[in-house]
Amino acid sequence: MAQIASITLVHTDEARPIIEAIMADNPGVRVMNMPGAVKLDCDGTITVKRASVEERIGRSWDPQEIQLVLVSMAGNLDEDDDHFTLSWRH
Amino acid sequence: MSGTKKLGLRQRYEYLTRGLDWETSYQPMDKVFPYDSFEGIKIKDWSAWEDPFRLTMDSYWKFQAEKERKLYAVIDAFAQNNGQTGISDGRYANVLKLFLTGISPEEYQAHRGFAFAGRHLRGAGTRVAAQMQSIDELRHLQTQVHTISHYNKYFDGIGEFPHMHDRVWYLSVPKSFFDDARSAGPFEFMIAIGFAFEYLLTNLLFVPFMSGAAYNGDMSTVTFGFSAQSDESRHMTLGIEVIKFLLEQHPDNLPIVQKWVDKWFWRGHRLLGLVAMMMDYMLPKKVMSWKEAWDIYFVEAGGALFQDLGRYGLKMPKYADIATAEAEHISHQNWAVFYQYTHAAAFHTWMPDAEHLDWLSEKYPNTFDKYYRPRWEMWAKMEKEGKRFYNNALPQLCQTCQIPMAYTEPGNPTEICFRSTQYKGDTYHFCSDGCKDIFCDEPEKFSQAWLPVHQIFQGNCGGATVPDVLRWYNMNVGADNMDYVGSPDEKLWNEWHAEKLRQAS
After folding, report:
1. Is residue A85, in this structure, part of any structural domain at all?
2. Which residue, B50, B220, B346, B422, has fewest beta-carbon neighbours within 10 Å?
């Protein structure tokens, strides 16, 4: 069975650029829309890149800010100043 | 240009969790941390602990304050705009009653439990993460009470929630779950709540349920739900990190951890049967069925997780296959219990209407038409004939999960499942092999369980009759309990609705 790495975000104006960045940076991402929330799934690994989010919102963005819109996730987390990544790969 | 460069995330976290910690010298470390060895867990190197969020205190307060500001803006707006009149149906409020009486007090227990773990685990990184979670859990209780207090102005069954939590029969199910975790050692607590509850199962509680609140027009609940859930991502991470840490530290930890995972998975599965019922029966507008949520959040997400943890030798929890098979039954069997005992419950029940029955048939093609639809149709018919069915006998309870013995044999949904065992000359009864195994591993603990039905029969719950017991529960009889149809809640809802139509015409 493929191990699915996943991020669920609230569906708000604040989260939308992050959702767009995830969709642009993770080929093959699958989107599940629920009332109020969006679940984004990828096989193996899924990442949010600081630079991609900043490009969309036009200001500097700290990956820790994702905590304000994060609902759930699956995978081992690796976070630093430039990305927020969930992965089942080692 | 300034000469000082801002520290990176990794460095800031390093300073907090390494630089601020020290080896005690006035007292030996074993006396300062007296609870982190008796469970048999072996830790060689506490500094190997790493919180992947690398959250420092300054960031923690900044983000939490921001979350609170956003949440309270919504709660205020909801109240100012009489949001309660805009929910999908008056029945929806019963979801909040069950949530506030059954779940919110456990947020407080989680707060206490993580405060204990945050004091008594030896590693500084672990302590910091547990302390943050402790504060989060207190915030969750507070925001839930604040949000639902608005509904308390209009709907019954809400105002006595802490009193009811300690006394009412079905609320002993979540209460005993957390009492069990909190009376365990700190490592078992971390596996029980941090891993089994937060990582494996919390998505099933919050994600579809809060999405359900959104779908049913409950703007304030969806906001506290998602605000809490944003903390849960951190809690889930703590849960998965603790299990990896324990398994990496020493091979002797594996059998202990596996036993806890088996135990707490099964206990969590039983507890979440209440959520299953909320999703399939109590949300007027439905987002997904319990079975669908189970497949996404346990079969798929849990499967990926245990595939990953397999490298440490950890296996899927025992009876996971049975729990997955039960996902086609559990919500129906629980709703049947509450329907029969509606006179003793602090929320309203009802038989599903035709549209709802069809939805259940569609979502449960293997089980609903065969085993449950005929029963619902019969009970609806009895209602029409003025013979609404109440069960007036007190049910036998499972000694471990404390749920009435209403679940069926694996593979045979027409036969009630009973298990029993002997301990010190007494017979103890169980709803499943999972609950029996848990008892047999810790009989001294579970033989002391406060079982509501036993306590009623022993005369410890206000008296010998149902009205005596309901009085002891602080139940407002005729308002808090019984069917939605004919309740003051329904009357109020219909008045609101009529008023809206009158003003529109």
Report:
1. no
2. B422
Instruction: Look at residue B223 and give its three-state secondary structure.
Output: helix
CA distance A24 to chain B (A): 23
Contact list, A3 vs chain B (CB under 8 Å): 303-304, 307-308
Query: Does a structural domain hold residue A84?
Result: no
In this predicted model, what pLDDT tens digit does every residue of B48-80 receive, in sequence order?
A: 888 888 888 888 999 999 999 999 999 999 999
What is the average per-residue pLDDT within B29-34? 95
For residue A87, is it within any domain? no
Strand partners, A7: A40, A73
- Rounded to two decimals, the pTM is 0.94
Helix (H, G, I), strand (E, B) or coil at B493: helix
Segment-wise mean pLDDT, segments of 10 residues, chain A, 90 residues: 89 95 97 92 96 97 93 89 90
Smallest Cα distance from A42 to chain B, Å: 12
pLDDT given for residue B3 in this prediction: 58
Q: Tell me the two tokens of residue B495.
A: 């008045």
Domain containing A39 equals 4-79
Contacts of B52 in chain A (CB under 8 A): 76-79
pLDDT tens-place string over residues B459-498 = 999 998 999 999 999 999 999 999 999 999 999 999 999 9
Q: What is the largest CA-CA distance in chain A?
A: 40
Quote the number of domains for chain B: 1
CA distance B12 to chain A (A): 11
Give domain status of residue B2, yes or no.
Answer: no
Q: Region B186-194: what's the mean pLDDT?
A: 95
What contacts B251, CB < 8 A, 6 or more positions away? none
What is the mean pLDDT of the segment spanning B245-265? Answer: 97
A88: chain B residues, CB-CB within 8 Å? 304, 307-308
Q: Note whether A36 contacts B214, CB cutoff 8 Å.
A: yes
* CATH number, position B85: 1.10.620.20
ipTM of model: 0.87
pLDDT of residue B487: 98
Across the interface, whether the CB atoms of B287 and A34 are under 8 A apart is answered yes
A36 CB neighbours in chain B (<8 A) are: 210-211, 213-215, 222, 226
B1 confidence band (pLDDT: 50, 70, 90)? very low
* Residue whose tokens read 């957390």: B178
d(CA B418, CA B407): 9
Range of the domain at B438: 9-43+53-504
**Stretch B179-203: mean pLDDT, rounded?**
91
Read off the pLDDT of each residue in B442-453 and give the average, rounded to a whole number. Answer: 97
Q: Which residues from chain A sit within 8 angstroms of residue B197, using beta carbons?
A: none
Q: Are B138 and B237 in contact (CB under 8 A)?
A: no
Min Cα distance A56 → chain B (Å) is 21
Q: Do A3 and B236 touch (CB under 8 A)?
A: no
Using CA atoms, how far apart are residues B363 and B361, in angstroms rounded to an integer? 6
* A54 within some domain: yes
Per CB distance under 8 Å, which residues of A are interface residues toward B? Answer: 1, 3-6, 8, 10, 34-37, 39, 64-65, 67-81, 88, 90
Buried b (16+ CB within 10 A) or exposed e, B378-401: ebbeeeeeeebeeeeebbbbbbbb
